[in-house]
Amino acid sequence: MTDRVQGFLVHLDDDYRIGDRMSYPSIEQEDENGQKVTLPTDADFIAHAIRAVKGVVKVEPIISGYEDRMARSRAGSELRKKIYDVLKEF
After folding, report:
1. What is the sign of the dihedral through the CA atoms of 28, 30, 36 and 41?
2. pTM of the predicted model, to two decimals?
3. Chain segment 30-69, per-residue pLDDT in tens
4. Residue 41's closest CA among 59, 22, 57, 64?
C-alpha cells in the first residue's frame, strides 16, 4: 500500500495583510457615494488561490507575531556575521 498525504503546510515569502474573509479586520474605504466598501487584502487573494486547488478543504491563516520577527532578525544577523567572517579571511 502506498503512503497517503493528509495535508501540506505552506510558507509564504513575506507577511501579508489579512482581511475579513478570514475573520480578521479588513480594509474599509468609502466609495464615491459615501458607502463603506470592504476591500480584499493580499492574504485574501492568496487564500482564495489556495482554496481553488483541487482537494483543498480548509485554509486557515497563521498570524505572525513578535517571535517571528525576532527569529528573522536573529537569523539575518547571524547570516551577516558569517558572511563577514568569510570575507574577513580574504
Report:
1. negative
2. 0.55
3. 777 877 766 677 788 888 888 888 888 888 888 888 888 8
4. 22
